[in-house]
Design brief:
Blueprint: H1 8-14, E1 18-19, E2 43-44, E3 47-48, H2 49-58, H3 65-70, H4 73-85, H5 96-123, H6 132-146, H7 148-165, H8 169-191, H9 204-223
Antiparallel strand pairs: 1-2, 2-3
Length: 224
């Protein structure tokens, strides 16, 4: 099964630090804190202020300026693990690259937004899903049917279409470049064999029959 540790280096590298950029929609709901003589700080290490307010107490930390502005690793990791990886049922995925892409979708759009988009995407393939668990099961089935490489690439392409649909020219190039970085990371995992699902695996019953036949042949050879 997939593990949350695999996605962390990519996300941390892709995210900057503290931000008050007005091109980000998160600027509409900034923290109340003054830092370096100015206000408007709305995001730190990819975690927006509303998410921090909701998640910090859930992972055992206070909502205060120190924890948001300086964002210690332990707080960032707790929020990522509980608020995003666990929320999207990352542990259920049998493909690490697919799990990383799914959770990164939630990281960018929130769990609710990611689920709505993924449910709509799966519907185009004739697959019904209604929550994080059924989404994970659906993608596991898709990987078994179509192969990990195809499902992962299709998912990245779908996410790129989603970002283009937002019509935010100031952010679009960065988002699309980030998706290509995620694609390269995922493909490197596939090439290195970090996957537990193979396309069209040989059924256990067939393997058993082949073993029995081989054993019969060998035994009869020794009898001659």
């Amino acid at each position: 099964m997939a593990t949350y540790e695999s996605a962390i280096p990519y996300i941390q590298k892709a995210e900057g630090g503290l931000s008050r950029a007005t091109t980000d929609t998160a600027s509409g709901n900034p923290s109340p804190y003054v830092y370096k003589g100015v206000t408007g700080w709305h995001t730190n290490r990819g975690i927006i202020w509303p998410t921090f307010k909701t998640m910090a107490p859930r992972v055992g930390y206070e909502i205060n300026q120190e924890n948001f502005i300086n964002m210690p690793d332990k707080i960032w990791l707790g929020i990522y693990k509980v608020g995003f990886w666990d929320d999207m049922k990352g542990d259920l995925y049998k493909s690490q690259p697919v799990a990383n892409a799914i959770v990164d979708f939630a990281w960018a759009s929130g769990g609710g937004g990611a689920r709505r988009s993924l449910i709509k995407y799966l519907a185009t393939k004739g697959i019904k899903a209604n929550d994080s668990t059924s989404i994970a099961n659906a993608f596991n089935t898709l990987v078994e049917k179509e192969g990990e490489n195809k499902v992962f690439n299709d998912l990245i392409d779908e996410r790129k279409r989603f970002f283009k649909s937002l019509n935010q020219p100031a952010n679009e190039k960065g988002w699309l470049n980030r998706m290509e970085t995620l694609r390269k990371q995922g493909l490197s995992l596939i090439v290195s064999g970090v996957t537990t699902i193979k396309k069209n695996p040989i059924p256990t019953a067939i393997i058993t029959v082949l073993l029995l036949v081989s054993t019969y042949v060998l035994v009869n050879q020794f009898k001659k």
